[in-house]
Design brief:
The complex is a heterodimer of chains A (114) and B (218).
Chain A lengths: L1 E2 L2 H9 L6 E8 L4 H4 L7 E9 L1 E7 L4 E7 L2 E8 L1 E2 L7 E6 L5 E8 L4
Antiparallel strand pairs in A: 1-7, 2-3, 2-9, 4-5, 5-6, 7-8, 8-9
Chain B lengths: L3 E6 L4 H15 L3 E6 L20 H16 L3 E4 L12 H15 L3 E5 L7 H15 L9 E4 L5 H5 L4 E4 L4 H10 L7 H4 L6 H8 L1 E6 L4
The chains are: A mainly beta (114), B alpha/beta (218).
């Protein structure tokens, strides 16, 4: 994984428009969030291998980045993204890592199931 | 006097703190106001205390709050354009700009009010302001109305200078406070809920002035 390069990432998003894709979308504070700091509210959520199709998508911000994908009915939105897999030519693998390197958010799209 | 003011903002409640007094003032002078609110703020996190809204009911609750706020200010024409909260920066620009452009053509406003693109903190605020500026830029030169912008990023004055418009809205504080309080799912500051009554003097001090920037080079 490399730090996101917006100009490199945008064509990777464009390549995936108008086709059925498997999505993994995740956000987590980590299971120990409240254990380490009682003022924190632990929460996590993910969805894996649901199928979506988007017509319009882009990356925005100055880092951490935001990605929005417009679907026929609705949106996929993710904020806090820092890293991407620059070597993957068929899939889009994005993640947001905090200052300690831990994963906070992930957005992944693939023509094949994860 | 302004004949017709077009306000373009992304979320119900964006009007309340920054320009509701200014709008009440213009309305009192006889202006027509059209407020195009781009989304219903349906991704907001505030649901009331204790929560009386949820993700499903929030859009319709905020729609009613927005209507109440507009009644409080005296706005005659409210348009809800139906974009989705948090997505304006990703929206198809032709669609977004086109809707604003058609409002400009329909209403031929003498003044447009929005957020200062780049200096308004929330991505929807910046994207809304940028769309307004692009749409106005597409009008023929000489037919472009002035744009008054709200701005509030840290250090914004370092980049855009001091506001050139400072409106004393103390005479319209009743309308302004009613506008703020209409958004009851969103504004939960104790003093605004009435649990700690703040003095009239403090209200005027905190809410009696509104600051705007004229967007340059249009």
């Amino acid at each position: 994984m490399q730090l996101i390069d917006k100009t490199e990432l945008q064509p990777m998003i464009d390549r995936l428009i108008n086709q059925d894709l498997y999505i993994h979308l995740e956000m987590t504070t980590g299971a120990y969030a409240a254990h380490l700091d009682s003022s924190k509210h632990p929460a996590a959520t993910f969805i894996t291998n649901a199928v979506i199709r988007f017509t319009h998508g882009s990356i925005s911000g100055t880092g951490p980045y935001r990605v929005g994908l417009k679907m026929k009915q609705g949106w996929v939105y993710s904020e806090g993204l820092t890293h991407f897999d620059e070597t993957d030519t068929t899939r889009l693998i994005l993640a947001g890592h905090d200052g300690q390197g831990k994963l906070v958010v992930a957005l992944q799209l693939s023509p094949e199931p994860f | 006097m302004e004949r017709h003011i077009l306000v373009v903002l992304p979320h119900p409640d964006d009007e309340a703190f920054g320009i509701s007094g200014t709008l009440a003032k213009y309305l009192n002078e006889g202006a027509q106001v059209t407020y195009a609110c781009l989304t219903l703020g349906e991704m907001g996190r505030n649901m009331g205390i204790p929560p009386f809204a949820n993700r499903v009911t929030l859009p319709s609750i905020r729609m009613k709050e927005l209507e109440e706020s507009c009644r409080a200010i005296g706005i005659q024409d409210l348009r809800m354009l139906g974009f989705h909260d948090k997505t304006l920066e990703f929206e198809d620009q032709d669609v977004l700009d086109g809707q604003i452009e058609s409002l400009l053509k329909e209403l031929n406003p003498t003044l447009v009010m929005t957020f200062y693109p780049g200096y308004s903190v929330h991505p929807d605020h910046d994207a809304c302001g940028a769309a307004v500026i692009r749409a106005i830029g597409r009008l023929p030169e000489g037919q472009r109305p002035p744009v008054h912008c709200m701005a509030f990023t840290k250090d914004h004055e370092h980049f855009i200078g001091s506001p050139d418009i400072i409106n004393d809205v103390k005479s319209f504080i009743g309308q302004k406070m009613a506008s703020i309080q209409a958004h009851r799912s969103q504004f939960q500051a104790a003093e605004l809920l009435g649990s700690h009554k703040i003095s009239d003097k403090e209200i005027l001090q905190r809410f009696g002035t509104e600051r705007l920037w004229t967007y340059p080079q249009l």
